[in-house]
Amino acid sequence: MEVTLQQANKGLRGSLEVPGDKSISHRAIMLGALAQGVTTVKNFSDGQDCLTTLAAFKKLGVEIDFDTQAKKVVINGRGFHGLRAAKEALDMGNSGTTTRLLMGILAASSFETSLVGDLSLSKRPMARVTEPLAKMGASIKISSQQTLPALIEPSSLKGTTIRLEVASAQVKSALILAALQAKGESTIIEKLPTRNHTELMLKQFGANIKTLADGLTIKVQPTKELRGQELVVPGDISSAAFFMVAAALTPNSKVKLINVSLNPTRTGILRVLEKMNANMTIQARQSDGEPLGDIIVESSKLTAIKIGSKDVPALIDELPLVALLAAHADGISEIRGAAELRFKETDRIKTVCQELGKLGVNVKELQDGMVIEGQPQLRVTADISWDSHGDHRLGMLGAVAALRNPGQFRLKNSQALGISYPSFLTDLASLIVG
């Protein structure tokens, strides 16, 4: 589907509460299903990826009620041993999170499960999950290309020590969820710290899990029972980031994002905006489980930035936005140590460079990132056809890029936005000054 994107010639103004965090919503369904008793989830993300997780657990025998208007989910948990074999292969759609975390959950099950995915997901690497799970005794068969489809076979897991070779919260979480069902303690050692939503939520549900002082080592004890909880999902900072960047780049703008997750393993984009001298205010509040707050961003004159491998885990999903910021900043910016971008919904290094090039941005593609020559006065008068390549974040990036460019902006494959944020274009339009 193709749509015409809007300009914001008079700027962006107003307040917005973005949908619930996608990562947290996935995990709330999973832990609620594995817990004893009822779990209530408010402000659940209604993006397609999270609906994929919800549908998968229904097919595994979990009773789940989703009020789409109230964005509220009620889960009647079945415990670790209460899941039932699905009658057919579970369709993972485009969701890598659902796929990889389910591998960990089902590795200790007493029945076989097949996982399939769409064309994009079926190109993404899965051995990074299946190989460390095999060290715990899991038996998961994948294709000769090390991708989906997957067959998860019944196994008995044993606790062990695993040092992760990639910085991936999905891989870490799969191992943690398997370790809860293993015999004996498990130790998981990360390469770099990654988002810790699984660890925080498991503590709320009563699991015996702790992260050591080095921030990299996680100790997991076998857990017989999780207890159902009442959860409120904070706003997704990865979704809010598009509006932050839109306000920073668009003249005469001031936007307030309300109740956004401020988990420090996810706030890399805030540190980037600060380093680039963005006009930004953060009003933090503490809540149960996850920190959150409001973020106010105004039009800004930006300076170039250098991103390295240690910066990447906390803003892996926001790096396309960093590239757009850099395109409008004063100076030459570098993004390095981000080869993981090549294994997302698209090869995001390649596709971001390709689409920015349509704006006349001087960008050089590197194996692990890109070099971008900023143009503070960059405005495109020519007509642009921006392609999401079926990648939701690339589609939203195009909508932000269109705001300050007077030429007609067309977005190809706009349906991809529904993967994480179905109402994104409507919410963005609500901030455009008429």
UniProtKB/TrEMBL annotation:
Active site residues per record: D317 (proton acceptor)
Q: Report the GO terms under cellular component.
A: cytoplasm
- Matching InterPro entries, A to Z? Enolpyruvate_Tfrase_dom, Enolpyruvate_Tfrase_sf, EPSP_synthase, EPSP_synthase_CS, RNA3'P_cycl/enolpyr_Trfase_a/b
The residues forming a coiled coil are none
**Pfam family of this protein, just one?**
EPSP_synthase
Q: Which residues are 3-phosphoshikimate-binding?
A: K22, S23, R27, S168, Q170, D317, K344
User: Which GO molecular function terms does the record list?
Assistant: 3-phosphoshikimate 1-carboxyvinyltransferase activity
Primary localisation category: cytoplasm
| Keyword vocabulary terms for this entry | Amino-acid biosynthesis, Aromatic amino acid biosynthesis, Cytoplasm, Transferase
SUPFAM superfamilies assigned to the protein according to its UniProt record, in alphabetical order? EPT/RTPC-like
Q: Which family does it belong to?
A: Belongs to the EPSP synthase family.
Q: State how it assembles.
A: Monomer.
Q: What name appears for this protein in its UniProt entry?
A: 3-phosphoshikimate 1-carboxyvinyltransferase
Q: Which organism is it from?
A: Ligilactobacillus agilis
Tell me the organism's taxonomic lineage. Answer: Bacteria, Bacillati, Bacillota, Bacilli, Lactobacillales
